[in-house]
UniProtKB/TrEMBL annotation:
Molecular function terms from GO: ATP binding; protein tyrosine kinase activity
Name of the featured protein: non-specific protein-tyrosine kinase
Signal peptide: none
NCBIfam families in the cross-refs: eps_fam
Taxonomic placement: Bacteria, Bacillati, Actinomycetota, Actinomycetes, Kineosporiales
Source organism per UniProt: Pseudokineococcus lusitanus
Amino acid sequence: MDVREVAQAPRRRWALVALLALLGALAGAGWSLASPDRYRTTTTLIFSLQGGSSVNDLAQGGTYTRDLLASYSRLVDLPVVLSPVVEQLDLGVTPTALARQVDVTTPSDTSLLQIAVTDGSPERAVAVADAVAAQLTTTVAGLSPDEVGGETVSVDVTVVEPAQVPDAPTAPPLPVLAAAGAVAGLVLGVALLVLLALLVTPVADRSTARRLTGAPVLAEVPRGGRVGRHPAPTRSEPRAPRAEAVRVLRTNLLALQREHDVRTVVVTSPTAGGGSTTTALALAAAAAELSQRVLLVDADLRSPDAARRLGLEGTPGLADVVRGRVGLEEAVQAWGSPGLDVLPAGTPHDHPAELLGAPRTAEVLAHLRQTYDLVVLDAPALLAVTDAAALAARCDGALLVVDARSSRQRLVVDAAERLGLAGASLLGVVLGRVTGTGGPRGATDERAGAADVAVP
């Protein structure tokens, strides 16, 4: 999915974004109404060193005081200061709990110390701030050194800005919290839609399919025609839109066959249930109508289904031929008229990936390529197991069957990458369950793109 499509996602689902913004505003308003008012007040103290008489003494005293200020500020949060305050005001809390209501700051390059207190009562906030300031003054007087550099000195603490009773709570007012909630809901809605667009958006149309895979769309099967009652729609319903879509696919594949000598084609999909078996059956039957020698191979050794759909025996088949149990002539069965040869999956094998990757499989495929004009192999889903990618690497290429309504874009990209990593050529895409195509596109629509596909 490109940047333009990602940016359009919130526009297509603006109602959801608006709903989340409204919910955010309501949540902010609710938080404001439910939260108790908090009041904050601040008192400011200045620390000075008394004792020196010269200018140099005063300068050194100011530096010495600022050095001590960092230590004095740490005292504010400690029980040595807060315990007497709790007892004096009868606050009914622990010094640790009170420390969470007190904030201390020391402005840089000054001898000032600011004590801020937050409380549910404005009057109590002032009382606590004054009491903390007074107790800190007492504590500092008891801890400060009496002599510095041989001279008698003292640290004086003076309140330069007493605490004032706050006239309004410190929490943001309701409109501010509501606006902040609306913005948060808006951001969440946009982020959610962008995430959905990246992860779960279906392919939907031919331009998207081509951009995701880098391969031409060889045919579009209209919605409602992906699963047929008959495995060969060009024979059972020759005028139906899905039959015409199969003819378009056949025409484009034959163009590849003439231009690049494509004879062995793996038909697969990103995930199970994508319609690859239906497509393989229909394509093989349609190609056989042109008096070509066509072989349909059920190469899904894990869940074979092609032979069952055609009403043929499932054994012997490909697995038996590769293992040397039977000859190819014994395993191949004829179906329909004009004739279509079918090689079933054969006897189940415990390790189908290893069997398909065996050198004997390559020999069988090479022999089939020399024997038939077109060999169509129905393979398992690409992202489920490695069988399809391994087979495609040994054939002239693969057709990727993509469901326009349910195949996720990320999975289609992963499937195309899986073929590329295996060294297989992606000949094209068959886009299924397409809505609003106005009927299958003509064969010439994709032939120029098909001719540009790199094939081995």
